[in-house]
Predict the structure.
Amino acid sequence: MIQITDSGIGILADELKKVGQKFFRSQSVPESIKGTGFGLFLVKYFGELQLTYAGL
């Protein structure tokens, strides 16, 4: 089992269901933090290919 912990700024409760969608970025992320919203989608996608689960 692999467990990853993130101590970032957090995600709003009503946005949790959107995490893992392609190009989703939380509204709580300041514009000064660069990103595409593609990273967690890739984690979820490749995890599902290997029959694993990536969740919050």
Observations:
- The mean pLDDT is 82.
